[in-house]
Amino acid sequence: MGGTRKLAVLAVSAVVVSVGAAAPPTATTKATAGKVPVAVGYGGAVASVDADASAAGIEVLKNGGNAVDAAVATAAALGVTEPYSSGIGGGGYFVYYDARARTVHTIDGRETAPLSADADLFTENGKPLPFADAVTSGLSVGTPGTPATWQKALDEWGSKGLRTLLRPAERLARDGFTVDETFRAQTAANETRFRYFPDTVKLFLPGGKLPVVGSTLKNPELARTYAELGRKGVGALYRGDIADDIVETVEHPPVDPASGWKARPGKLAEKDLAGYRVELQAPTRTSYRGLNVYSIAPSSSGGTTVGEALNILENTNLSKASEVRYLHRYIEASRIAFADRGRWVGDPAFESVPTRQLLSQRFADSRACLIKDDAVLGSPLAPGDPRHPVPCGRGGKAAPTTYEGENTTHLTVADKWGNVVAYTLTIEQTGGSGITVPGRGFLLNNELTDFSFAPANPAVHDPNLPGPGKRPRSSISPTIVLDRHGKPVVALGSPGGATIVTTVLQTLTGFLDRHLPLVDAIAAPRASQRNAAQTELEPALYDGDLRKRLEAIGHRFKLNPEIGAATGVQRLPGGKWLAAAEKVRRGGGSAMVVNPAP
Ligand code: GLU
């Protein structure tokens, strides 16, 4: 049933793309000039999808800032140059390694549903709303968590003030950035729905047209908003005049009546913004081949799902496995971990989430024993019960899986003291809700569509139904791996909705088990299995010989043109860092270090 629901949702969103859904992912085949996917050197490192954003972080590190300072500056710059993936209208999850204490800390800066929301948030006349109708509406807008995340991270671990750290981004917004092919393609894919909102047209369709590759796109309104946040603090967005503008925009979406688009209003109120709090919480920890893998705990399913799959894979010597066996095991471990995530993970403030048990080796072993070398587990696979692991137990009902958008951005930073940040931030779909806050220069998220719209199967508890002030389940998985001495080995993360989990898992095993250089582990063609009948493959795998060999075991595949856009940093001996990003996906990423090694 869960799979049926998911397919139904996907089908709906696919059909209505031309009338308002965010665009499906497209492959970007050309790397943008001026971007380097790998850099090695001293003094700290930054990896992001964008060269201006990485440069903002490097500028902060050069001026004596630490990794947290640089992460905030990089994120703010991404709000300018990657406004369809991130920004102050959205949320995210921040993972921080403190080199002095050798400890890992996290901030859950996820958007929350309005206090007025209930399980029927996305139903009308007793039926789930079409996905696209929900995306491009005020209904899907959650209280933004990103500004509060920045402030909390700086209060806890930063060394510089927000005002200073917003300056590079403010400059970038005022002076403009160069439009590349990816930006133009993302704008084109959203053009239809962007045209429903005159303020979005003004911002992203200059002169009413698609921005030209190579032209400069300025956002003076965002520059002013950043300046105001710098002056007054992020409180201005939660209680001040920016808060008023957000509430007004959500409650009365500024839609062009001539467009005919029915932009449903949301019920985000002043009290939702004023009451918003990030959660400072312990990371998840999974031991894997003598290392410790730290990531984000629920409300994201990232840490538990990557962690469970790693625990399952620990039963196989992946470094010696053939390519077919490696992929087979990776796909099956992902399938099982997704079956369990669907049943057990939601916002822990509302659901009883067995985080520790999901990450126990005993539970993983009980699930790993389902995997066969010569056959494929069917999907949707029923979940196990981590509270009472039964070896090889199967049966029960599969849990629903929600559709998640595939656009977000991830940045990874290290500083000269050895601190590390892995930070993934999002506005959900590419272009979020498509609604710009008039006069403020940023898009509002549609994060609440990460909730299940309705229980797919009344017989199975769905921990991801909307609720008042609840956080929708995420897949974001910013991850930091430490060695047995508590020193960083590697840190990474990716966008990609639910594929984030598989991208992080595949990249980790590529690097740790298959011993690929980090940049090659990131570049490797991806497969993504999320408890569905078919596993998604990128073209290099889909078109290759490996597919046939996996099909011979029983795997079924479908093509996904592009999965994820990861970045990472790796600690090398002697204070050296390696930053790595995509070679090609999304036009290639940008890796930089403060002082390049000769
Ligand atoms: N909303 C998704 C999540 O939180 C992220 C979307 C994306 O990565 O594109 O899991």
TrEMBL record:
Protein name: Glutathione hydrolase proenzyme
Gene3D superfamilies: 1.10.246.130, 3.60.20.40
Catalytic activity: glutathione + H2O = L-cysteinylglycine + L-glutamate; an N-terminal (5-L-glutamyl)-[peptide] + an alpha-amino acid = 5-L-glutamyl amino acid + an N-terminal L-alpha-aminoacyl-[peptide]; an S-substituted glutathione + H2O = an S-substituted L-cysteinylglycine + L-glutamate
Record-linked Pfam families: G_glu_transpept
Gene: ggt
EC number: 2.3.2.2, 3.4.19.13
Pathway: Sulfur metabolism; glutathione metabolism
Subunit comment: This enzyme consists of two polypeptide chains, which are synthesized in precursor form from a single polypeptide.
Protein family per UniProt: Belongs to the gamma-glutamyltransferase family.
Species assigned in the record: Streptomyces tricolor
GO molecular function: leukotriene C4 gamma-glutamyl transferase activity
